[in-house]
């Protein structure tokens, strides 16, 4: 009989300092690369919007992210969770930078004590002409849009106001027909302490609504930075769990800042 091993798994709530808020992610420390089918099966078993798989290499880690349905190109909250897990488990000294090789290039994270700052690529959205907006997208959302844009992964829609974002009730079955990773909806904030609010829907990837989406803020940072003429902003993702993301626009890069807390530690038989 083949010998099995116990592989460490953590569940970390990201973009929050409170357990059971923010966005939960699985973090799996692999002793070596595993086949994609196995990683996808474990991500489907855990059922979080993303599960991160890390393999140590050189002075950093190879990092991949899987939703319950498929692998993705970029994920903020599971990267934040991974950095937090590295420091908490003492795999990395808290004074050391976490460095990840990913499908979106090299990503880094620094421990700031009360939070973690990550360096991500800017994913600005280009304007989509009215005739090029996918048929049914606006109707499936059930709201009118003041702006529609798209980057390499997602559509971005600015709605009339914060209330429209918070009260939105999309038809997820119809929305899943849109050929894109996800749909970001946003508006200027009327709440003290925030510059903008947002929500993120990705039903085609098995996630009707993501609680807090770091990678979406790589698009929101240049969008609201340009509109509000600010390089540092604070966004609130108005999902049921909710979460706060500070963004820092730096040209072709974006700083994402948030907290994280571990809620589960265990192992999986591999």
What characteristics describe this protein?
Diaminopimelate Epimerase, Chain A, domain 1
Model description:
The chain has six helices and 18 strands. It has 270 residues and is an alpha+beta fold. The two termini are 14 Å apart. Strand 1 and strand 2 (23-30) form a beta hairpin. The chain has two domains: 6-117 and 257-269, Diaminopimelate Epimerase, Chain A, domain 1; 126-250, Roll (Diaminopimelate Epimerase, Chain A, domain 1). The chain has helices spanning 36-46, 77-88, 137-141, 162-167, 172-175, 217-228; strands at 6-14, 23-30, 50-57, 60-66, 71-72, 98-102, 105-111, 116-121, 126-127, 147-150, 154-158, 182-188, 196-202, 207-210, 232-237, 243-250, 253-258, 260-269. It is globular and about 55 Å long. The mean pLDDT is 95.
């Amino acid at each position: 009989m083949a010998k099995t091993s116990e592989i460490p798994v953590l569940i970390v709530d990201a973009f929050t300092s409170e357990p059971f808020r923010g966005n939960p992610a699985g973090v799996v420390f692999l002793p070596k690369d595993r086949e994609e089918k196995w990683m996808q099966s474990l991500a489907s078993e855990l059922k979080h919007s993303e599960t991160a798989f890390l393999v140590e290499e050189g002075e950093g880690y190879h990092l991949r992210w899987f939703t319950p349905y498929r692998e993705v190109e970029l994920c903020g909250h599971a990267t934040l969770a991974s950095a937090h897990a590295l420091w908490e488990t003492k795999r990395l000294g808290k004074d050391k930078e976490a460095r990840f090789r990913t499908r979106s290039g090299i990503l880094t994270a620094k421990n700031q004590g009360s939070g973690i700052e990550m360096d991500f690529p800017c994913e600005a959205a280009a304007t989509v002409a009215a005739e090029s907006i996918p048929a049914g997208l606006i109707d499936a959302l059930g709201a009118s849009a003041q702006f529609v844009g798209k980057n390499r992964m997602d559509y971005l829609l600015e709605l009339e106001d914060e209330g429209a974002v918070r009260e939105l009730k999309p038809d997820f079955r119809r929305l899943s027909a849109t050929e894109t990773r996800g749909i970001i909806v946003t508006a200027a904030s009327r709440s003290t302490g925030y510059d903008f609010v947002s929500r993120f829907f990705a039903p085609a990837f098995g996630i009707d609504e993501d609680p807090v989406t770091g990678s979406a803020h790589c698009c929101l940072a240049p969008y609201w930075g340009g509109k509000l003429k600010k390089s540092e902003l604070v966004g609130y993702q108005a999902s049921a769990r909710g979460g706060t993301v500070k963004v820092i626009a730096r040209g072709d890069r974006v700083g994402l800042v948030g907290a994280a807390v571990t809620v589960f530690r265990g192992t999986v038989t591999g």
